[in-house]
Design brief:
By secondary structure, the protein is mainly α. It folds into two domains: 38 residues, no CATH class; 51 residues, no CATH class. Helices cover 25% and strands 4% of the residues. A two-stranded antiparallel sheet has the order 1-2. The radius of gyration is 18 Å and the shape is elongated. The N and C termini lie far apart (38 Å). The chain binds zinc ion. The site of zinc ion has 6 residues, from loops.
Length: 96
């Protein structure tokens, strides 16, 4: 990934048309190269920084909110294991 960015208008236009956005900054030798959102898709590995920060930040946290996950997917399901043992864990599940 080259980390190229593009304008929101181009994203909106291409999404509306159902077309991926070609990266104009990548060299010809790497074409076709596509711009993708700066997110981790299902099935992709989390960035190594995620684990580094999980191990460093969670033990020091006063409050840890884990939002938007079923805690069924690695690496998010590991997060509660890294908060201090005296933390009270409360889970809110909107789906039964
Ligand atoms: Zn690129």
């Amino acid at each position: 990934m080259c980390q190229a960015e593009t304008e929101n208008d181009e994203i909106t236009k291409n999404c509306t048309e159902g077309q991926p956005i070609k990266c104009e900054k990548c060299p010809e030798s790497k074409q076709p190269a596509w711009i993708k959102p700066d997110i981790t898709f299902f099935g992709e590995e989390m960035p190594t920084r995620f684990e580094e920060m999980m191990r460093e930040d969670c033990p020091q946290a006063d409050l840890c909110l884990i939002i938007g996950t079923s805690l069924m997917v690695l690496d998010f399901c590991l997060l509660p294991n890294f908060v201090p043992k005296e933390f009270r864990l409360t889970f809110y599940m909107l789906d039964p």
